[in-house]
Amino acid sequence: xxxxxxxxxxxxxxxxxxxxxxxxxxxxxxxxxxxxxxxxxxxxxxxxxxxxxxxxxxxxxxxxxxxxxxxxxxxxxxxxxxxxxxxxxxxxxxxxxxxxxxxxxxxxxxxxxxxxxxxxxxxxxxxxxxxxxxxxxxxxxxxxxxxxxxxxxxxxxxxxxxxxxxxxxxxxxxxxxxxxxxxxxxxxxxxxxxxxxxxxxxxxxxxxxxxxxxxxxxxxxxxxxxxxxxxxxxxxxxxxxxxxxxxxxxxxxxxxxxxxxxxxxxxxxxxxxxxxxxxxxxxxxxxxxxxxxxxxxxxxxxxxxxxxxxxxxxxxxxxxxxxxxxxxxxxxxxxxxxxxxxxxxxxxxxxxxxxxxxxxxxxxxxxxxxxxxxxxxxxxxxxxxxxxxxxxxxxxxxxxxxxxxxxxxxxxxxxxxxxxxxxxxxxxxxxxxxxxxxxxxxxxxxxxxxxxxxxxxxxxxxxxxxxxxxxxxxxxxxxxxxxxxxxxxxxxxxxxxxxxxxxxxxxxxxxxxxxxxxxxxxxxxxxxxxxxxxxxxxxxxxxxxxxxxxxxxxxxxxxxxxxxxxxxxxxxxxxxxxxxxxxxxxxxxxxxxxxxxxxxxxxxxxxxxxxxxxxxxxxxxxxxxxxxxxxxxxxxxxxxxxxxxxxxxxxxxxxxxxxxxxxxxxxxxxxxxxxxxxxxxxxxxxxxxxxxx
Length: 693
Ligand code: CDP
Ligand code: MG
Hints:
Residues 251-426 form the Helicase C-terminal domain. By secondary structure, this protein is of the alpha/beta class.
């Protein structure tokens, strides 16, 4: 027995037993509260088991009898899918059977599904068909503290539904930080008594280590708050002495310093987006090649929305022996996704946030300083299993200057999609809708104007029929919905369907390995047309399904992303089904000819022009004019826009264009998926929006 080798004789269990999670001790209490009160607010550290365990407890306690389903909403698609995979594994079923998920354009559920993870936006959409969400016995709004736009709207809608289903619907709000009282107060509304003045703050109650339902000082019947005191180890927080010039470089440097100077333990680095993450992963790989072969190795991994399922799985796997894992993540690892084994956190202090400028009508994703609440949450990621360290790549003075909490998305977003949905749900008076935080009037007005110009609302701000109602039902944003619905009158519905599917891929159509960029550009040119990106995307799709026979070889030969192309086929089919439900038939015969680089003419009319006119009828609010220096200005002026390097309009001449979306990278604002149009079309299709001055 002397040379009993521990590591040779034991295999680590695949999963930490769920019974050892902090939430397990609260099981009875939780079930009691959910049984007793319409609303239960669950506050607990990330990793305590809220997302993965609560739905299983509920299922076992009988909340799915008589065929009812438990819904768990997530603000992010990636979280919905990874968590469903995990819970299915724990339950021992295939994803899509008892445990499934549903995100836009991807429904992995079946008649057998009892626990369903879905995005909060999708649940809102379901309310259009099933206004009381009657198939659900329990709806858990997860990650509510993030206050995503859809979460906020969903909360308001659920409050209304609860009034109609006071006895058979249960709502659980789960939140990683301490906004619990706000949520409870919101649901209590005018029915219950106001909070008693002697109420302890939640903070005080939690530090007392209370384990039962907290007497929140709310005597009402509406709900209760329960805190799962997840064990937290101390985390040392370190600041920079002077600000970093480039936080990506600094993050890479810090990771190497940790790797060479600090004891074992994985590293989690918060960056803002995919490009930064890819850069950092690349930099680590290069520098890792110079490590001494016998020294501990380092394995960089990316984590962001849009990773393939296999890529996601690496994140959760233990690193190979003698290897330190370093995960470069977007904000998604702040609370939505828990990774075990993290001992070091590197916090760059930035996050990409949506920001909508009502003056220019442009919504951007901009790297923005985080809030203090975020910084605390990020640091906490290092103390889940042992005492950890958090390296903040900013000064302590900068930390002090951060705002306390992030501004809810509803106060800084384009509200047109949300207002369209609320109207479709029969909520006409937006100003009187019960929002947990009201949106600024300016944003509401701007959204109403846009919807009016698109023809979705009439002079009385009522949803038009059928255009407005159909726009709300289509699973694409209002400008694209309008484009699709006006396509029949331009005789190009089949083509616009394809364009809608292709633009929804978010720029992942072409794909190249290292050092093949030139070849990819050459391949892309084969599909390119003078008019711009939309028709080019159309050509790519046509070639893929005809010449390419939807095969991976064609994609490989043409530097196309096979997965993305396959997704486009599926999205297109789903959109087509919607339109057919509206009684619109899609004539596919015209589009079987790929017509590469030749002008498309049908029945004497220039098909390409019809497509561009149709796009203008939906995207007139995204119009811009090229300036002598090659940049663009949008109509409202002000904003300097650059054609994205992936666009055909990059370094080309144009006059007026419309674009699909705006992206911000560093200090520049880029437009992606750009097509040439004629100025007069703007006045023709959006006379109110472009009142001739
Ligand atoms: O929702 P909450 O943050 O409270 O915790 P959870 O997501 O339910 O996670 C509970 C445990 O499951 C944690 O230890 C996670 O690390 C683990 N987990 C995992 O290993 N893989 C996943 N895909 C999800 C959770
Ligand atoms: Mg969770």
